[in-house]
């Protein structure tokens, strides 16, 4: 699943470790999500969306047209 997590994190000048701490996950989990190797769980996707004050759909793109 494509996502904007790396861009959003960079805009705030946060390291992967800083973002991981804010989300209560490992830095490796953040890296796996950013690189598309792992999709976040739904609860984690909601935490990410709340952290960036965005809708899940604004951060993650499953490739399906609306």
From TrEMBL:
Keyword Methyltransferase: no
Residues of the HTH cro/C1-type domain: 5-59
InterPro entries tied to this protein: Cro/C1-type_HTH (IPR001387), Lambda_DNA-bd_dom_sf (IPR010982)
Sequence intervals crossing the membrane: none
Entry keyword annotation includes 4Fe-4S: no
UniProt KW keywords: DNA-binding
Pfam family, one: HTH_3
PROSITE patterns: HTH_CROC1
Gene3D superfamilies: lambda repressor-like DNA-binding domains
Matches recorded under SMART domains: HTH_XRE
Protein name as it appears in the record: Helix-turn-helix transcriptional regulator
């Amino acid at each position: 699943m494509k996502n904007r997590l790396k861009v959003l994190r960079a805009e705030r000048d946060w390291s992967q470790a800083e973002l991981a701490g804010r989300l209560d996950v490992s830095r490796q989990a953040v890296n796996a999500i950013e690189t598309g190797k792992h999709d976040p769980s739904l609860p984690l996707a909601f935490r990410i969306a709340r952290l960036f004050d965005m809708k899940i759909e604004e951060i993650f793109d499953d490739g399906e047209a609306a």
